[in-house]
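Case study B.
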Amino acid sequence: MTGIDMKVNIAGVELKNPVAVASGTFGFGHEYNNFYSLNELGAICVKGLTVKRREGNPPPRIAETPAGILNSVGLQNPGVDSFIANDMPFLREFDIKIIANISGNTIDEYCEMAEKVSAAGVDMIELNISCPNVKAGGMAVGTSCNMAAEVTSAVKSHSSVPLMVKLSPNVTDITEIAKSVEDAGADALSLINTILGMRIDIKSRRPIIKNNMGGLSGPAVFPVAVRMIWQVSNAVKLPILGMGGVSSGEDAVEMMLAGASAVAVGTACFADPFAPIKVRDGINSYLVENSIPAASNLTHGVLPW
Amino acid sequence: MSSVYNCPVISCTMLNCTCADIRVFAPEICGEAVPGQFVHIKCDGLTLRRPISICDVDGAVLRLIVDSRGKGTEWLVSRKKGDILDILGPLGHGFDCSGESILVVGGGIGVPPLLYAAKKASDSCAVIGFRSEDQAILLGDFSQACRAIHIATDDGSLGHKGFVDHLARLKLESEHFDRVLACGPTPMLRSVAKVCEEMNVPLQVSLEERMGCGVGACLVCACKTKADNEEGFVHSHVCKDGPVFDANEVIWE
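Model:
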């Protein structure tokens, strides 16, 4: 488009544009491919995978909040083997980077999945150590520097593709975790996962979500995400896939200026299935209007006071 | 193929204190819609769309009945002629209206999606229930679309005093129907499922659950359906696998 270089690079993986779709909001791509070709996107972070099929949490799994939603799906997925057999062939038809999001109950499970998805030809692994909606693994790992480092280092030795670690915002100092996983061998970081939240129906006195608590996403979390990306990009050298409430090209530019190399669009797809395309085109327009030749020029371009 | 369309509102009129009858110009959606499907409508200032079942299709005019229950639906029922609605649809799997005779059984805001089904069927009868006479909607429409209609109200202010499952049982005892199609609150659906099982008549039910994307990507609107696995169930999704399910697949909770 108009001579602008939209390509970005995350840990050696080249995305043809800086817009990915966030894990858990886009399934394995089948549904939104009915609206537009997945070829339009830079990358897809697939629905969080586990070793075995999971049916997830009981409903209700969603509650609306001011400028966002809470969800607690609980990693419902068909299991990594089913993904490789049934969804990878579909995804490989497209010119799109495939990022496999994996969640384990144990380090061995994480490593087993890393080997399987590496062999299946994914472009990158997103290590999910930050899911707030499961009891084992998940956020418990991602909020401890030692555990996060231990999992990262183990999985790194079982991965033949770049390893991106997805960080939880539910910590006192996200830079400590970021530094730990960088030292442990992570190739990239993605942040932020959802922020733990809760809504209560005051008539029934019941939490709206059956799991009582859920993860907050959408525009409500955007400033928190921008702040954390800025802090992390000041603390580590790793490239960052930024996410959390991005719903426009302006949001994406802002997040990239804070330090992200690319962004992932998630909750915005629920309001507008075409949101990722609009975000991409919005970035392009900004670059054109400001005579910036390449999307990658935006990364960490903020001028802090 | 479903997509997002900007649809002008043709009319928006209140049917009772809370329900609005909204007609929009939606040629693409109307061209594809089958009874029992739904549309997902963007509401000003809200993150989530609101799933609204398709009540009827007349040429290029899509008819939606919206019950004002919260922020999104309050905004929807206050639309005026000429306003534009951002509508995603049609979505989901609808009713099977084939066969010689269909009985539709609906309760409350579950009544509207049965109208288009009753019209599409070659012969249909309706059993519809409401809390009270002042809540009753679409009586004239069902009278036109169906060979016979039977009404129940919880307080007896109109028709039979009681619930629709009782009327459905009487109807099924008195004549043959190829299939029953039902939509309404879960306790009502469970009762109707029991009646249909006893009477050995196939039943399709339209389910409801809090929804996210509406297209099957976010996996939020889970409902338990029977499966041949260790747990004996899988979580299907109302938006993509439903909203209409065969009753014998559903695990009632």
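The longest strand of chain A covers residues 97-102. The remaining cases will be described in the next quarterly update.
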